[in-house]
Structure formats: structure tokens, C-alpha cells
Amino acid sequence: MVMMSFLKSLFSVSNDAGQFGSDQEVVEGGKPYKAAADGVFDVGALPAELLLYILSWVPAVDLVKICSQVCKQWCEISRSTSLWKIKCLRERKYIPHLMGPPPEDFMKFYFLSPYTRNLLHNDRALEEFKYWRRTDRNHLIVEDSPEGSKPIQNYIQINGPVKNWVTSYVKSSIEQVVSLLEEGCLRELLDDVKPDIYISVWCAARWDCGSIFFFTAQLLNDEKNVLAEFSEEKNLSTLREDWHKVEHTFKDYPPGIRYVRVNMAGVDTQFWAGHYGSKFTLPCVKFVFQKN
């Protein structure tokens, strides 16, 4: 719907005074185009280069799901290397002087590039503990919605469903180790460019029970020895049902980083039976390239 409104705003031409009439010509790049009798441009009359530029502003998902279904020409343009190269460069998903040779498939790179997406898997707990190693099966579960806490959507704009992990009166944790090379990162970029690595997570307590949240992020080398570490222990008793974001950016870390380990843990402070401990969701590990 948003995409169609966007296209209409680009192609619609009013017949009001001062606008192009049905008998007038619109000149673009020295080539005349006739406006239709109803005052709307014939999109098919646009040169391919101009149409490619216009479509490059359409959201990526709409390009794949909608634009590619309009006609043969739109399908070819919406899947072309030229269009996806423009999008990658404009949105800084590909930075030539930092990321080396261009990818063979810019469209695939746009969606799968390890340099612009969250490298943690199952960050919304939608697959419960898949990709995560947990220390205790009885004292750490997944909630469909945060019981005793406000919805996470009150604090962050996010599309789609989000679940959260919740702890108990026994300190319990989950952990995930990301292999940067397996995710597609280049050794040379990690060792020479060393882009900032941003990590974050959202946490909360219940309104009726205090809790403590523990967060640790480590940068590891090939042997999984710790080269850099961030750790924070947060008493959520005063925040109660409000969600809080814990975040940190690793800068100027030593060369040799090959893995990122993220560990999240929690426990309630009143030793209540059940799952009244800290809640957490949406952990994130992302690269941040500074603009030159």
C-alpha cells in the first residue's frame, strides 16, 4: 500500500491550472513524452534508466514481492544488478573502499550482508532456544508476551511478533557464539578496518517483583580467547515493569577477532516460586561503519 501510494505520487500529474494538460509534452533528457488524456503519465513510456532510478527508492521487500510481478520490464529492472548496486551504495550496505571487491550478486548481498544486519539468530525468541545454549531448562522459559511488564512495543518501533525470555529464582542464562567468518565477514576487514561492533539488549522486571539482569559480550580470537569484553549487572528493581536498553560499542579492538559471544542471565530478588525474574529480548550484534 505504501509503495503504491509512493508510485502514484511520482507519476500522477494534475490537470489544474499551471500543470501539464493532455495536449502538452513533458520533456525529459531531450525526449518528449505525451501526457495521457486523464493527466497521468504512461509509465511504460519512461526510459529504462529513469524507471530504474525511481524503483531504486522503493523498499526492498516491495521490489521483490510486488514490482517484479507488474510486467516483464519491471521484473527485469527490479532484479537487475544495477538497481541493487544503487541500493547497496546508497544505504551503505556496500562501502567499496572498506569492503574490497564488489559482490557477485548485489541483490543477495543486500539481504544477507553480514556488515549491516543483526548477526545474532533468533533474537526475538520466536524459536524459543534455537541457536542459544541455556544453563537451566527449568528456570528459564519463553513468554509470548511479558507477564507483569509493559509491552516492548511501547519502547521500540518494531514490526512483527516479539517474544521474550524470562528467568526465575535460580540464576539462569542463555548464550550464543557468532562465527564472524561463517557469517561472511572478511578477515582483512576485521583485522585492518576494524569497524565498530555495537551490541545491545532490552531487559525488564515485573511490577511486583524485583530482579537483576546480567549481560556480557566478548570478542574472541581463533582459539576463542577473550580479546575484549563488556559486562554489566543491572538491578531492575527500581525500573520494575519498564523496559531498559543495555548497549555498548566496541572500538579500537585488537586484530584477530573471529567470534562474538553474548551471554544474558537473570534472577529474581525475592526468591518467589515461578518465573518472576528478569526478562530480556531483542539482543543485537551489528557492525557500525563510520562515515568518512
UniProtKB/TrEMBL annotation:
GO terms for cellular component: cytoplasm; SCF ubiquitin ligase complex
Membrane spanning stretches: none
PROSITE patterns assigned: FBA, FBOX
Gene3D superfamilies for this protein: 1.20.1280.50, Galactose-binding domain-like
Domain F-box: 40-87
InterPro entries for the chain: F-box-assoc_dom, F-box-like_dom_sf, F-box_dom, F-box_only, Galactose-bd-like_sf
Molecular function (Gene Ontology), one example: ubiquitin protein ligase activity
Domain (FBA): residue spans on this chain: 109-289
GO annotation, biological process: ERAD pathway; glycoprotein catabolic process; SCF-dependent proteasomal ubiquitin-dependent protein catabolic process
Name of the featured protein: F-box domain-containing protein
Species per Swiss-Prot/TrEMBL record: Pomacea canaliculata
